[in-house]
Design brief:
This protein is mainly α. It is 66% helix and 0% strand.
Length: 374
């Protein structure tokens, strides 16, 4: 995999459980801003031992599923490193489940990269029709023909097998909400409308996908919590605030690339517009928002034991909840560390010209993965 050895050295293996993260990544000189000191009180959890730094079966599956057969798509996926993202965000798994999680992560990025660029092209018909087929795939309704839809159905059924009806319903609903956000975004771009920051934060909760990936923490450990416990107010808030933090943190790393390709759904760009300020001032403002979201996430996690006490659950449930909450924290902290070393983010100005020889649409957004005739 390209750049793997150079990119895994950023923060893995160090314990930075300080009140303020001072080990900020160095911004390439071509970025329009410098990174602020991000508040990160969560300790590092290491890396999943199932990941060995080499290609996993995930890449074989991606090729066999026709998700990554285009060389430009494969290069972009290698810069993204879905298997490493999985390994640093979901550190503890039953051994046989790590590969399924890697495949789900690869599928999400394959869909996201392709549809984001069609949003900037204002292609309402393509996005709407593609999302409709992907929705049928996830719902398990009717025949699907595109590689992305077939792969999505396969991996979704894989992780849902043997799970409780309540878990499957909650997880599936959140995947479907994520898919629906692509239609909302392409409609907004086509109409020339914008989102306020107030509108954007809950929208980013779903586009970050981490709200429903936190449910996969249960799958990873072979845990299926009672639904009334999974839906405790503090558990729900932890998922919401964690997903919002991750999405907006991603925005800080992605803003120059997204601005270059004309993708407007980014907290930094919204802050620049609303505050009539420089990019650096907008980044600093967004960092203040991130600090608030992180404190709210931590506060929600800390409130869970009291809510469990009011439910009167037994010690076995409490122990399982503690394991699941640890996966929530691991995913948030893991995303913090993941972004700081991946070529997808740290050298985005360097790779944009090569993937973008003409016009605003990168080559890695080719449509073969969505073609219904294949």
């Amino acid at each position: 995999m390209a750049d793997t050895a150079a990119s895994t050295e950023t923060t893995v293996g160090r314990d930075n459980a300080a009140s303020t993260d001072t080990g900020t990544p160095a911004a390439p000189r071509t970025l329009g801003y410098t990174f602020p000191p991000f508040f990160m009180p969560l300790r590092e959890r290491g890396i999943n031992p199932a990941w060995n730094g080499r290609e996993t079966q995930m890449y074989d599956w991606g090729r066999a599923s026709a998700l990554t057969i285009d060389p430009a798509v494969l290069r972009q996926m290698e810069r993204t490193q879905p298997d490493f993202a999985t390994a640093i965000c979901i550190v503890k798994t039953l051994p046989e489940r790590f590969e399924a999680l890697c495949r789900y992560v690869l599928w999400v990025w394959a869909v996201d990269d392709g549809l984001d660029e069609r949003i900037t092209a204002r292609d309402v018909v393509f996005v709407t029709e593609t999302v409709a087929e992907l929705t049928r795939a996830i719902e398990g309704v009717g025949e699907v023909r595109s590689p992305a839809a077939r792969a999505g159905r396969e991996v979704h059924e894989l992780v849902c097998a043997g799970r409780s009806a309540e878990w499957r319903a909650e997880f599936t609903a959140e995947v479907l909400i994520w898919l629906a956000t692509f239609v909302r975004e392409v409609a907004a771009v086509r109409l020339g409308t914008t989102m306020s920051m107030e509108e954007y934060i809950p929208h980013r909760r779903y586009t970050s996908v981490l709200g429903w990936f936190m449910h996969l923490g249960e799958y990873a450990l072979g845990i299926d919590l009672p639904h009334r416990v999974r839906m405790l107010p503090a558990m729900v808030e932890a998922r919401h605030r964690g997903a919002e933090w991750i999405g907006i943190y991603n925005d800080v790393f992605s803003v120059d690339r997204e601005d270059a390709v004309g993708y407007p759904f980014n907290a930094v760009l919204i802050a620049q517009r609303e505050r009539c300020c420089s990019r650096q001032e907008a980044v600093n403002h967004v960092n203040t928002m991130l600090t608030d979201l992180m404190k709210r996430f931590v506060g929600a996690v800390e409130r869970v034991p009291a809510e469990l006490s009011r439910l009167g659950v037994d010690e076995g449930v409490r122990a399982r909840v503690a394991q699941v909450l640890e996966t929530y924290e691991t995913q948030v902290r893991g995303n913090h560390d993941y972004h700081r070393g991946r070529p997808r983010y740290v050298d985005s100005p360097a790779y944009l010209p090569g993937e973008q020889p003409a016009g605003p649409r990168p080559l890695y957004s080719t449509d073969e993965r969505f073609a219904t005739g294949t």
